[in-house]
Design goal:
Immunoglobulin-like; Coagulation Factor XIII, Chain A, domain 1; six-stranded antiparallel sheet; alpha+beta; 27% helix; disordered N terminus; 696 residues
C-alpha cells in the first residue's frame, strides 16, 4: 500500500518537529529537501589540524580522522578531542572558522541559494572563533546557532563558547556587529513555530552576551555587558586565543571603519542604534570607545600570556602584520579597558534591576526551600517516632506469640502423653494394646502421621541482573520438593520447581519495560511457605532485533517500547560488503507503508537510503510521525508491545557473480520520544554487532 508524497507545508511541519527531537540532523535534511529550492553545494577546506579531530560525513555514522586540505560539506559533523583544534576556510568567501577543543560543530548549511551564499553552523558544545569577510550580496548569510541562540553576522570577528553540560552560550564580539536572537516556546506548550517568541539584540565590539538554556527576560539588552577578558581567557582554548591575536590587524581595520561610521551617525544626531546597548552621546565618548577597541586584543594577549595559554611568538606573528607601530601589541604598554565607555545607562539600570529581582527571587526560593526542609525534618521525626512505636508493639506481639506457642506446644505434649495412658487403661489386659494405639491416634502426634509436613527453607536468589531485555531470566536454588514462587506485591508472576539446594533453576518472565524493585520469592511445599526473600532491583529495557526474513531480506523489529519508553521517531543503520549487496530503492528514497509496522499511516514518514563507501555500504532507515497542516489530531508517542512489532522489512539487491550469501550487520539505532528525549540507543562495539547471514 503506497502513500502519496508529502506536500511542502506538511514536510515543513514534520521537519520542525524532527529538528526539535534532535534526531536525523545528519540524515533527513538531505533526504527530504524539496527539489524546488535548487540549492547548489559549496565546500570548506581544512587549513590546520591539532590533536584528535574526527568528522562524521553527511548521512553516515562512522567517524574519520580530519587531515589538512580535507574538504568538508553540508551535513558533516566535526568533533574535536581534548587539547585538539581545527581551522577551516570557506572556499568561495574566504571566511575562516577555528574550532577549539572538546567541541561538536555541525555544518547545517553550506550552499548557494538563488543569489546568496549561505553558511550556517550549529555548535552544540565547545568554542568557535569566526572571521567573516564582508558579505557581498544582501542575500548572503553567515550564522552560528547554539542550543540557546542564533548569531547572525555581516562581516565580523566573534567568539562563541557553549557549556556542554548546561547549554549556556557566551558570545564575544571583537569587531563588527552580531545579531543575537533567541526563540523560546510558551510555558506548557509544545515547540511549534506559531507559539514561539523571538527576541533579538545587536552586540557591538568589546561587548558580550551570556544566554542560558531558557532565558525568559523581556529585553535581551539586559543580557549584553562589557567584555569580561578574564572569563574569556579562562574559557577559550589556546588555539582560539591564538586566532584572535593573530587577526589583530584585520580587527583593527574593521573597528576603524566602524568608528568612522559611528562618527558620521553622531554628526547626524544618532547616539544609539536600535536593538543595542551602544550609547555614544558625544565625541569624547566616541574617543573612549575607540581607545577600548585599540586595546581589546592587547588585554586578551596579556592575560593569555600570564595564564600560559599562548607564547610570545604568537604576539610577534601578529605584530608582523600590523604596519602602524602604535597599533602593535606591546605588553609593557597595555592600558586597562574602560568598562563604562559607550554603555547605555538605561540598559545598565534595567540590568541592575533585573539582577536585584533575580537575587530577591533566589532569596525567596532559598527561604521556601529552608521552610520545606524544616517541615520535612519535622515530618521525618514524627515518622521515626511512629516507626519506633510500631516496632515496640510488634516486638511485644512477637514475644507474646512466642510464649503462646511454647504454652501450646506444652499442652499438646501433655495431652499426647495423657491420651496414650488413657487408651492403655481403658483397654484392660486383653485390649490394652489396641486401646493404647487408639489413644495414641486420638490424643498424640507420635501415634499418627503429620499431614502438614515441614516448612521449606527460603530459596537462594542467584541471578545478578541490573538491566535486561525480555525474556527476563531469574535464577534460584531451592529444595527439590519445593516450588519457588515469584511475586510483585501480591501478584504471582510465575513459579518453577526446585531441584535441590546445589542445583540452579531458571524462571523466564515477560515484563513491561521499566524498573522493577520489590519483587520477592518464597518456597512452597505442602501448603507451607518459607519466609520471602528480596530479588535485587533490575530494569527491563526495550530491545531491537535483526533477523533474516527471506531471500535477500532483513527485518528490524522493536520490542517493549511502552509507557515512558514509547517512541516518536527511529533511525537505524545497517552495514554490508559492496561485493555482496547493494540497495536500489526509489529515486527519492521514499518508502511505501508496510502493514502492521511501527510507522504506518498518513501522518508518518519513512525513508531508506544507501551511503556507499569504498568497501562497504551503510543503509540508513529513518521513520517518524509528523503533524500535517490539514490534520486536526496531533500524533502522540507510539507504544510497542513487549512481544514486539516490525519496524521495517528491507529487500537488498544481490551483487551478480558473488557468493550465495552475505553478512548484514546492525550497527546503530536511535529512538526518541515526542519531546526529543533519547529513549533507546543501540551502538555496540565493533565486532559485537547483531548480524545475520542473508541468502541471495
Amino acid at each position: 500500500m503506497g502513500r502519496t508524497k508529502l506536500r511542502l507545508q506538511d514536510f515543513r511541519a514534520f521537519l520542525s518537529l524532527f529538528t526539535a527531537a534532535t534526531l536525523f540532523l545528519s540524515t533527513l535534511i538531505t533526504v527530504f529537501a524539496p527539489a524546488a529550492y535548487a540549492k547548489s553545494v559549496r565546500a570548506a577546506v581544512v587549513t590546520e589540524v591539532t590533536g584528535d579531530v574526527q568528522v562524521k560525513k553527511a548521512g553516515g555514522s562512522k567517524s574519520y580522522s580530519v587531515y589538512t586540505d580535507m574538504t568538508l560539506n553540508q551535513g558533516d559533523m566535526i568533533i574535536t578531542g581534548s587539547s585538539s583544534s581545527v581551522a577551516l576556510k570557506v572556499v568561495d568567501m574566504a571566511d575562516e572558522v577555528t574550532i577549539g577543543e572538546d567541541s561538536e560543530v555541525y555544518i547545517s548549511e553550506l550552499t548557494t541559494d538563488g543569489g546568496g551564499k549561505v553558511s550556517k553552523l550549529k555548535a552544540w558544545s565547545g568554542s568557535v572563533w569566526a572571521k567573516v569577510k564582508s558579505l557581498v550580496s544582501s542575500e548572503d548569510e553567515f550564522e552560528v546557532q547554539t542550543p540557546t541562540a542564533v548569531m547572525g553576522v555581516r562581516g565580523t570577528h566573534f567568539l562563541t563558547i557553549i557549556n556542554k553540560k548546561t547549554g549556556e552560550t557566551t558570545m564575544v564580539v571583537a569587531a563588527g556587529v552580531v545579531q543575537a536572537k533567541t526563540v523560546t516556546a510558551q510555558e506548557g506548550e509544545e515547540l511549534k513555530t506559531s507559539l514561539q517568541e523571538a527576541k533579538q539584540v545587536l552586540v557591538y565590539p568589546a561587548q558580550q552576551i551570556n544566554l542560558t538554556k531558557r532565558d525568559e527576560v523581556q529585553d535581551l539588552k539586559t543580557k549584553v555587558e562589557f567584555i569580561n577578558v578574564d572569563q574569556l581567557v579562562k574559557q577559550a582554548p589556546p588555539k582560539v586565543l591564538e586566532a584572535i591575536i593573530k587577526n589583530k590587524a584585520e580587527i583593527d581595520q574593521e573597528n576603524k571603519e566602524f568608528l568612522e561610521k559611528q562618527k558620521q551617525q553622531l554628526q547626524q544626531g544618532a547616539i544609539k542604534p536600535a536593538d543595542s546597548t551602544l550609547f555614544i552621546k558625544d565625541l569624547d565618548e566616541l574617543n573612549k570607545v575607540a581607545k577600548n577597541l585599540d586595546n581589546i586584543v592587547g588585554n586578551i594577549a596579556k592575560d593569555a600570556i600570564d595564564a600560559k595559554k599562548i607564547e610570545q611568538k604568537t604576539i610577534d606573528e601578529a605584530n608582523k602584520k600590523i604596519e602602524d607601530p602604535l597599533k602593535k601589541i606591546d605588553l609593557s604598554k597595555i592600558e586597562k579597558l574602560d568598562k563604562t565607555a559607550g554603555q547605555d545607562p538605561e540598559a545598565e539600570r534595567l540590568r541592575k534591576a533585573q539582577e536585584a529581582a533575580a537575587a530577591e527571587e533566589l532569596l525567596k526560593r532559598q527561604q521556601e526551600e529552608e521552610r520545606k526542609l524544616l517541615e520535612n525534618q519535622q515530618r521525618l521525626s514524627a515518622l521515626l517516632k511512629q516507626i519506633e512505636e510500631a516496632k515496640r508493639k510488634q516486638d511485644e506481639e512477637n514475644k507474646k506469640a512466642l510464649e503462646d506457642q511454647k504454652k501450646q506446644a506444652l499442652q499438646d505434649y501433655t495431652s499426647e502423653q495423657s491420651g496414650g495412658k488413657t487408651g492403655t487403661q481403658t483397654g484392660g489386659q486383653t485390649g490394652g494394646q489396641t486401646g493404647g494405639q487408639s489413644g495414641s491416634d486420638s490424643g498424640g502426634s507420635d501415634g499418627g502421621t503429620n499431614s502438614g509436613g515441614t516448612t521449606p527453607a527460603a530459596p537462594t536468589v542467584t541471578s545478578t541482573l541490573t538491566t535486561t531485555a525480555n525474556p527476563v531470566v531469574l535464577k534460584f536454588k531451592a529444595e527439590a520438593d519445593a516450588v519457588v514462587q515469584v511475586y510483585y506485591g501480591t501478584n504471582l508472576l510465575g513459579q518453577v520447581n526446585g531441584l535441590g539446594a546445589a542445583t540452579e533453576v531458571s524462571l523466564q518472565l515477560s515484563l513491561q519495560a521499566g524498573m522493577y524493585s520489590g519483587l520477592t520469592a518464597k518456597a512452597v511445599r505442602s501448603g507451607l511457605s518459607s519466609s520471602s526473600v528480596n530479588i535485587p532491583t533490575f530494569e527491563v529495557i526495550p530491545n531491537v532485533k535483526l533477523t533474516n526474513s527471506g531471500n535477500s531480506k532483513v527485518a528490524i523489529t522493536l520490542e517493549n517500547f511502552n509507557g515512558l519508553k514509547s517512541l516518536y521517531a527511529v533511525e537505524a543503520h545497517l552495514l554490508y560488503d559492496n561485493n555482496a549487496f547493494t540497495y536500489t530503492g526509489t529515486a527519492n528514497n521514499e518508502w511505501s507503508d508496510q502493514p502492521d509496522t511501527v510507522f504506518n499511516g498518513a501522518q508518518t514518514a519513512e525513508t531508506v537510503r544507501q551511503v556507499k563507501g569504498s568497501a562497504q555500504s551503510e543503509l540508513i532507515y529513518a521513520g517518524t510521525q509528523f503533524m500535517s497542516s490539514t490534520s486536526t489530531v496531533e500524533p502522540q508517542n507510539i507504544a510497542v508491545p513487549k512481544e514486539g512489532m516490525l519496524l521495517a522489512d528491507i529487500t537488498l539487491t544481490p551483487v551478480s557473480g558473488a557468493n550465495n550469501s552475505g553478512m548484514v550487520k546492525l550497527i546503530y539505532v536511535k529512538v526518541v520520544d515526542k519531546a526529543g528525549n533519547e529513549v533507546f540507543i543501540y551502538q555496540p562495539a565493533e565486532g559485537s554487532e547483531q548480524s545475520v547471514t542473508v541468502m541471495k
